[in-house]
Design brief:
Length: 200
């Protein structure tokens, strides 16, 4: 009777020892935690709104030239021209009639030399007034004709000087007329420069 009981108990004990718990987790399987990744959107108050302000483009209007700007151009060239004119237009120094020596003062060659020099300065005056119209703009209406006439008279002096220059040292055929024409051109330039007086 005892043998039968032992035989029955042994298999039951073996079964209890070898039985595993159903709730035991496999050590090789990692535990996974479900994490909800919530996308955080900042509130409108937290958002910094950067407004790129576009600077206003300044409106520039073309600057018109003034009477004084043109008068200063004339005044700058007039300094050298006036000195020559006062010297060569003095009949005690130069004889522009063409009937005698050009230089009245013995041993002087000033009158002849100044023909070329004055012609060059007159040309410079004309060039500067013409270039100013491209540089600073056309002259105001008030002096537009004065500028135009000054350029014309200055160029006349240049042309007359070129014709009279060969007569500066030795007078030949036609020199009398050339020198008188040059004298007339010089007096016209003197009067034209004087017309700028109110603007200087």
């Amino acid at each position: 009777m005892k043998r039968i009981t032992i035989a029955i108990l042994i298999p039951m004990a073996l079964t209890a020892c070898s039985g595993g718990s159903a709730d035991t987790a496999d050590p090789k399987t990692p535990a996974t935690s479900s994490v909800s990744s919530a996308s955080t959107t900042p509130s409108p108050a937290a958002q910094s709104t950067t407004t790129s302000a576009t600077p206003a483009t300044p409106t520039t209007s073309a600057t018109s030239a003034t009477n004084q700007q043109y008068a200063s151009i004339v005044a700058e060239e007039e300094l050298g021209i006036d000195k020559i004119l006062r010297d060569v237009l003095d009949t005690r120094h130069c004889d522009w009639t063409g009937f005698g020596p050009l230089d009245v003062r013995p041993g002087y060659l000033t009158c002849g030399i100044q023909i070329f020099t004055l012609g060059l300065k007159a040309q410079t005056l004309a060039i500067n007034l013409e270039s100013a119209q491209r540089r600073i703009g056309p002259p105001p209406a008030e002096i537009a004709s004065l500028v135009k006439d000054t350029i014309g008279v200055a160029l006349d002096v240049k042309k007359a000087a070129q014709k009279a220059d060969p007569c500066s040292l030795e007078q030949g055929p036609g020199c009398g007329e050339k020198l008188r024409n040059y004298y007339t051109a010089m007096t016209s330039l003197r009067d034209q420069l004087a017309a700028w007086g109110p603007y200087q």
